[in-house]
Design brief:
Blueprint lengths: L35 H11 L11 E4 L6 H14 L6 E7 L6 H12 L9 H12 L3 E7 L8 H9 L3 E7 L3 H5 L2 H7 L2 E4 L5 H15 L7 H14 L2 H17 L7 H15 L13 H12 L3 E2 H11 L6 H14 L3 E7 L5 E7 L1
Parallel strand pairs: 1-4, 1-5, 2-3, 3-4
Antiparallel strand pairs: 6-8, 7-8
Helix pairs in contact: 1-2, 3-4, 8-9, 8-10, 9-10, 9-11, 10-11, 12-13
Length: 359
């Protein structure tokens, strides 16, 4: 029998990782680097609320993975940490997750602590929302606002909440142009375009994440340079975070206490395979755009169950497909091409679930 669990493999207390979560896209770092000016601008739009006046509404645009959401959340956190949320209530809504007017109203109710939402219509929920929010001021962020299904919810906020700042975050600059003229006129939006990070900034951000995530002196300089350069070229810090984590995983699989240039390159090759830049076998050239989208979802959501991947896929794809067919035709194809692998996990009497990871 092969030695499946090599004794040379790093033991749990010898892991090169200090905090895996620091490499997750949802991690909130103590310091938001290189976005100080943008945070100040957002704060200036909010400040009139402290004088019982409407703040400035703002649309924040820029490519994915360059700190737009993080900058807004940092401003909101400072409001809360300094106790200013008693005067100005910060509310964050992810419209990719909750895109209907009713779901957005439920999110606002949750943020303001109103729990009696069962069987209430959207209009009834807004009756409760305005009672609470009109006792103070509010700043409401609609992240991925281009996913909002019904803009009536924006009208509701404009008409029923008195002192407010509305923040819209989008990767799609065309969203503002496509808005109804009457609504665009009423919003009178300020524009804040997030520029891409330069190479020095990318390296500085990734170096700081290494400090949070790994034990000291793990990364070779060449490894960080290689990952930083690739991340800068694709202009998405989420890719850099994945590469840091994946190169660490590869190092541990090889019982290494150093992340060398070779491990960094192997992690980059894995990204290239999933994105279609590099094909490890000729069959992978047959992937269509929809299958590449699925690979991207799996890359950003490693160790999720097949059903969770299915739900995420439905949220991003315009195709309708039943779960069984999805698993048989799409996930199994990627597995057969050796791009992903499955791991069956027991749920006891409830059966099993399938965990999906990049190979």
């Amino acid at each position: 029998m092969p030695d499946l669990f090599n004794r040379d493999f790093l033991k749990g207390d010898e892991s090169i990782f200090k905090n895996h979560l620091a490499l997750d896209i949802s991690f909130f770092p103590p310091i938001i680097q290189y976005r100080e000016n943008e945070q100040k601008y957002i704060a200036e739009c909010i400040k009139p609320l402290f004088h019982n006046r409407n703040g400035k509404n703002i649309v924040i645009s820029g490519s994915p993975g360059i700190g737009k959401t993080l900058a807004v959340k940092a401003v909101f956190k400072e409001l809360e940490d300094d106790g200013f949320d008693e005067e100005v209530k910060p509310i964050y809504i992810n419209c990719w997750k909750d895109s209907s007017s009713h779901r957005i109203a439920l999110d606002i109710c949750d943020a303001i602590g109103y729990k009696f939402t069962h069987n209430k219509t959207t209009n009834e929920l807004f009756d409760e929302i305005k009672k609470k929010l009109n006792r103070k001021s509010a700043v409401i962020c609609f992240d991925e606002c281009d996913k909002i299904e019904d803009i009536s919810v924006i009208y509701m906020v404009l008409e029923q909440i008195y002192n407010k700042t509305l923040i819209f975050i989008t990767n799609n600059k065309e969203w503002l142009i496509k808005l109804d003229n009457r609504l665009r006129s009423r919003l009178t939006l300020e524009n804040l375009d997030f520029r891409a990070y330069n190479l020095t900034e990318v390296k500085g951000i990734l170096d700081k994440r290494i400090e949070y995530a790994f034990v000291s002196n793990i990364f070779d300089k060449e490894s960080l340079d290689e990952i930083s350069s690739y991340t800068h070229n694709v202009n998405d810090l989420r890719t850099g975070l994945f590469l840091l984590k994946e190169s660490g995983n590869i190092a541990e699989e090889n019982s290494s206490k150093k992340i060398t240039l070779d491990y960094a390159k192997k992690a980059i090759d894995k990204i290239k395979v999933s994105s279609g830049e590099l094909n490890k076998n000729s069959e992978s050239k047959s992937l269509n755009d929809d299958e590449r989208l699925l690979l991207e979802i799996i890359k950003d959501n490693e160790s999720k169950s097949s059903k969770e991947i299915y739900e995420l896929y439905l949220g991003k794809s315009d195709k309708e497909i039943k779960y069984r067919r999805f698993k048989e035709s799409k996930l199994n194809k990627l597995r057969d091409l050796k791009l992903i692998n499955f791991k069956e996990v027991s749920l006891g009497i409830k059966g099993t679930k399938t965990i999906v990871n990049l190979k």
